[in-house]
Amino acid sequence: MSRSYFPKCVALSALLVLSVGALDTFIAAVYEHAVILPNRTETPVSKEAALLLMNNNIDVLEKAVKLAAKQQGAHIIVTPEDGIYGWVFTRESIYPYLEDIPDPEVNWIPCRDPGSMVQHAAPPLGCSLSFSMGQGHGSQSTCCKYPQHQHAHDREWTLCPRSSQGVPLR
After folding, report:
1. For the chain, how many helices (H) and strands (E)?
2. What transmembrane ranges does the database entry give (predicted)?
């Protein structure tokens, strides 16, 4: 399972490096805050309650990101991996906090996609202030019930073949 995280990290790093590649130097900021955690992580909450909590954390993040971009001149800002929703969940209770994150091969810009809830909330900070932002957010995807199966399925359970490295082929 950890194989799927490596390409996303590489893609994110490449995106950040490419976006400041024209500069001779750049300033990077790494931000961490005391995450506002949900009251009960064992019990699933509604999508609305999850969004409320995440928006509270995004509000904290927004202030720090604006400060780093404007006062410190940061070109790249990296936020904590679970800084929007926390980290102590069960498989069932984390689900309302997750979104479908498109494959890196998909030409997708969160700033221009109103269909994404959380991914749409934080990246516009980078769009409006002209900096790159590395934001960790959990992804949801439909898995096959057979663990040795080398295929994934989309939401309608259409077969999505994967390469031997586990990367979707379409």
Report:
1. 5, 5
2. none
Gap between the terminal Cα atoms of the chain: 19
CA separation, residue 105 to residues 33, 42, 169, 170 (Å) = 31, 35, 9, 8
| Residue listed under structure tokens 């949801």 | 140
Query: 87 to each of 10, 18, 36, how far by Cα in Å?
Result: 23, 30, 11
Q: Counting every residue, how long is the chain?
A: 170
Structural domains of the chain, with CATH: 2-139 (3.60.110.10), 143-170 (no CATH)
The answer to whether the predicted template modeling score (pTM) of the entire model surpasses 0.85 is no
Each residue's pLDDT tens digit, 6-25: 444 444 444 444 454 556 78
How far apart CA 56 and CA 86 sit, in angstroms, is: 12
Q: Are 75 and 25 in contact (CB under 8 A)?
A: no
